[in-house]
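In response to a reviewer's request, we include the raw inputs and outputs for one of the modeled complexes. The two entities were modeled together in a single run.
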Amino acid sequence: MEYDALKTLHSSLPPFAPHIPVGVLPVLALVLLSTTFVLAFYFSTLPKSTIPAKEVAVASTASVLGGFGVVALFCTAGVYV
Amino acid sequence: MSLKWASVPLFLLLSITSGLCGASSFENTAVVRTVELGGSVVHVTTTYAIRALENNLKTYTIALGKEDRAKTSWVEVKVKGQDNTLPFTERVEKHLSLFDVTLPKPLSGNKTLNIVFENIQTHATTPWPQTAAQNEDQALKYTTDLFVLSPYSTLVQRTKLRALTPRFISWAEPQGIDAFVGDAAVTKNGANVVYGPYKDVPPSTLDNFLEKYQQPVTVHYFHEQPVLEVRKLNRAVEISHWGANINIQDDISLYNAGPKLKGHFSRIEHQMQGYNKKGAPHVLPALTLGLPPGIRNTYYYDTIGNVSTSKLRVAPLPPKGAQRSQYSILELRPRYPLLGGWNYSFTLGWDAPLESSASYDKKTGTYIVAIPILTPIPGAVITDEELKIILPEGATDVSYVTPFPALSAVMGTHVTFLDTVGRPSITLRYKNLTLKHAQEIYVTYKVSTLAHIKKGLTVATALFTLFVLAGVARRLDFSINRKKKVQ
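The model returned the following structure tokens for the whole complex.
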């Protein structure tokens, strides 16, 4: 698209809005990472079984929550990933 | 029978040849060239008052000599009094650059128009003498061609060289142009040196005119401000969707292109100059920059470490769509004052909310970001710039438009925190940028939701690997003496 046309389009469009508002990120980081910590502790107390269904379930929820918690933590610390 | 040039009246000869060249379509009633002498940046404005001699003329040609074109880094053509620029195409003929300007409306016979041809020259002045002690004056030399070139005949033309202060050391006297001179070939009044007015100048792009009359004229003047040059600017712009943030980081190599320091630098003398408020004109103690409004987390450091001698006043962020926005003022004081010939390299960076620069088109799902090319440093020229735009990971359909063409553009990949395949990056190179080039590049791209979430899932995968290792480790027995089962 030509320069002036793109410039007017840019000024007429609504501004960028993040999926998760930036002010929520520190709180979200704290909540997600503390949940991950608790779940990891729970994982360490689970009995060893032949088919580790429960261990895999707890590990996967803990890692997904921890993954997004780490991203939120980076943004809170000022490293905007 | 050979034709002797000297025996034929010159204007008759040239009018015959100009008629053959088809240069009779326009006539310049007056041409005024104003040269605003500066340090590293010289602003040349040429106003052509043209009169059409034929009907329905659509293009007007402006000529520029080879040396002047080589020094020019910004060209803009307008009708006097109007804001919008006129389109033009450039071509090179022999050793002249010709700009064919498309007029806003075709011009019919005997109609007049005023066209303003603005160009900015960089690296056009040289310090003379080339060395200066700490407390001495700074003088620069500027050379230009005497006559304003034009493929059409000119009734009267003059060139005005204007310095910031009315202190000129010398200016060249033109030779052999008595045919055009009225009162005096060159006059000085105040801060202006005027070459002209020269009357009845024939089309000056012809070889015989150029050989006989065109000559370089040099003006030697005092300049009261430091001549600044940014030798290399590396600008990295990183866009983050998770943090809704745009980070701009400038690596600047600042150079004082004035006369080199003669003798040693005396700190006592420098302190006394600062105390008496009578600084030497070629010493740069501090620099004031205008940064965008609404910035945060600004950092300024150099090779030694953080530089604390700076003061930032952040301007509030205007609501989107507001026309005027203030600059945030940053007063930088480098670790040492910059004397002639000295370098100073530093890094300056800041974060800004992405809402101020980016917009989202819901229909097509594209983001449009406006990225400033440079931070304007008044009076300085940026000799070499590398602009690297780093988009979020997983950005697709990346395209960009630039206000003026770059020297080169390369798409690459940039790897940073929490990345898997890396982020798409656009690297643009520029040369000889000035304040007029401080415009914005618009980049459009798309980021799918899956690509956005991928960052969290990457870390989740790493954590899950740790859990799997832990699960395997708990099932292994590392005891030295295995417990014997009770029989």
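As requested, we also summarize the result in words. Residues 1-8, 13-22 of chain B have pLDDT under 50 and may be disordered. Chain B touches chain A through 53 residues (CB under 8 Å).
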